[in-house]
Amino acid sequence: MCTKERGPDQAMSPGLDQVRRVSPDAALQALLSGTGAAVGPEFFRKLVRQLAEVFRVTSAVVGERKPGKDSLHPLAVWSQGDFREEQPLVLIGTAFERVLTQGVFHCQEALDARFPEDGWLRRLGPSGFLGMVLRSSRGEVLGALALVHDAPLEVGPPDLALLGAFASRLVAELERLQAQAGMEQARDFLRKVLNSIQDPLFVKDRAHRWIVANDAFCRFMNHREEELLGRSDYDFVPSQEADVFWRHDELVFGSGQPNENEESITDSAGLTHTLVTKKAVFTDTDGQPYLVAVIRDITEYTRLETQLRLADRMAAVGTMASGIAHEINNPMAYVSANLSFLREQLSQEDVTELDLVELREVVAEAIEGAGRVRSIVEDLKGFTRSDEKRFGPVELPQVIDGAQRLVRHQLQTRARLVHALEPVPPVFGNAARLGQVLVNLLVNAVQSFSVRDPERNLIRISSRTNGAAQVVVEVEDNGRGMEPEVLKRLFSPFFTTKPVGEGTGLGLAISHAIIESMGGQIEVRSTPGRGSTFRLVLPVFSEGVPPVGQGA
Predict the structure, then answer these.
(1) Tens-digit pLDDT string for the chain (552 aa)
(2) Helix (H, G, I), strand (E, B) or coil at 77
(3) Residue 143: which residues within 8 A CB-CB, separation 6 or more?
């Protein structure tokens, strides 16, 4: 039977020499010197061996209690002069269960009779036992430390103190391993999260070197992660592109504010990609800044968008075709007539001074007519050209003049156009794109009138400054207006209220995208039966400072 069983609060008799033959100080010194550099499994093996040697017992065991598990997992077992492998021990009905519930459990002898189902004890030493629970700094049970002897084991307070020193060192290592496992688990979780993101993502340090790169970014760069980390854009892309990335990164590092911009990058095959990059900065616990960025490759989207814009322009040209033909035919008619008259007059032998005056007037009229034709052609060229990547200062009055010339014939037959144009500074954008928007708005305004009545149908185009940084352009009509349900879907692609064949449903959706790409806004208000007003808010051009949201 088990004799002299004691709980943690019971007095112990003095220890016996056959159990501990070294002083506590010497034992502690041996503990520190023998395990100081060891960590993990090596540390546990060294410690149980030292335990057995210091206490002169048959076996020493360290076991870990997994959270939510009713078993003890062996970390290291030293028995009969060698290390042993043991299976996890089910705790119910074992001496280790008593250790975990009592904190300290000592059975001097006859241990096997008390715990006949304890397989560890039968193999390690069936007589004496001393065990101590291992608790974290938060009071959680981490496991147990035990001495097992094949003969009676009598211990006293010095032995418990020494065993407590071993237990403290064990707890420190177990907590370190738990923290490390938690960090590795968190790191693994974060890595899986980052790699599940389909858009390329990276993190840079203050020296602009990549320190994190997800799988999508590695595929995008066509390099393995280990080839990217610790290096910068200058190692992989042309220097002029790397300079742009560096400046954009510095803008975020310096301001601390998120930034979104459009960039270009040349891949290893020499192909240029158009990117939208969102960047933000954060600091770690030491105050060091880092930049995180998410990339979206919009090369194909940009190509399709350009095609849609061109298709919308061609549709607009088709809508205006008869008016443009009329605008060209009128001056061409009197140019042809004047040239025919000039040829007839010059074929005569006697040309008087009076005739010469008339001929000069005929030539001037022909030149004026040719100039009108040239002006219309120039407006069409500006409207249909594809230099959409060029962003810069745009003179708004010129764009408004060109747009209204293209729709002049339709305006003359259906509505009256009035102006309220105040002097405004150049805006940031692209003249062709902005012209496309104004043509769309003017055509929509013309088509909002159900009857041709230029005296009553009114279109008003106005411009003014809005503070020092914005210009406002409004296109207002007194047409039939729109219902709230229509307004909700007005800028959706392919949505149109026009009859089949009169609209693609792309004009306003493309106009919305164009204005946003310039860093501006497009707004609309409408009242059924009273008309609509489209309002463009455009950024004033400022040298070297692209507007927020600009996607040139």
Answers:
(1) 464 444 444 434 334 344 444 555 565 565 556 555 667 889 999 999 988 988 889 999 999 998 888 899 999 999 988 999 889 988 888 899 999 999 999 988 888 788 887 878 878 877 889 999 999 988 999 999 999 998 888 888 888 888 998 899 899 999 998 888 888 888 889 889 999 999 999 999 999 999 999 999 999 888 999 999 999 999 998 889 999 999 999 999 999 999 888 888 887 777 788 888 999 999 988 889 999 999 988 877 777 766 666 666 666 566 556 556 656 766 676 677 777 777 777 777 676 666 677 777 777 777 766 766 776 666 566 555 555 567 889 999 999 988 888 778 778 778 889 999 999 999 998 888 888 889 889 888 888 888 878 888 999 999 999 888 899 999 999 988 888 888 887 777 656 666 544 555 567 777 888 888 888 999 999 999 889 999 999 999 887 555 554 543
(2) strand
(3) 62, 63, 64, 65, 72, 73, 75, 133, 134, 170, 174
Instruction: Note the pTM of the prediction, 2 decimals.
Output: 0.48
Strands 82-83 and 521-527: unpaired
User: Any idea which residue has 């010059």 for tokens?
Assistant: 346
Residue 167 token pair: 């237990």
Backbone angles phi, psi at 311, to 5 degrees: -65, -40
Q: Give the pair of three-digit tokens for residue 387.
A: 């230099």
Find, among 296, 491, 311, the residue nearest to 386 by Cα. Answer: 311
SS3 276: strand
What is the distance between the alpha carbons of residues 250 and 139, in angstroms, rounded to a whole number? 48
Contacts of the segment 216-220: beta carbons below 8 A, 24+ positions apart: 217/295, 220/295, 220/297
Residue pair 529/481 in contact (Cβ under 8 Å)? The answer is yes
* Integer Cα distance of 348 and 357 in angstroms: 15
Residue 306 · residue 387 · CB < 8 Å: no
Looking at 385-491, list the stretches that DSSP marks H as alpha helix, in order from N- to C-terminal side: 396-406, 408-414, 431-447, 484-488
Bridge partner list, 314: none
- How far is residue 281's CA from residue 254's CA, in Å, rounded to a whole number? 9
Residue with tokens 């979104």: 260
Single-letter amino acid, residue 374: R
Counting other chains too, the contacts that 335-343 makes at CB distance below 8 Å and 24 or more residues apart are 335/365, 335/366, 335/369, 335/370, 335/373, 338/362, 338/363, 338/365, 338/366, 338/369, 339/366, 342/366
Pull the structure tokens for residue 8.
Answer: 């943690």
Which value, in Å, is the radius of gyration of the alpha carbons in the chain? 43
Instruction: Assess contact for 60 and 71: CB atoms under 8 A.
Output: no
Q: Is the Cβ–Cβ distance between 519 and 260 less than 8 Å?
A: no
Q: Which residue from 319, 343, 348 is spatially nearest to 498, judged by alpha carbons?
A: 319
SS3 track for 137-160: CCCCEEEEEEEEECCCCCCCHHHH
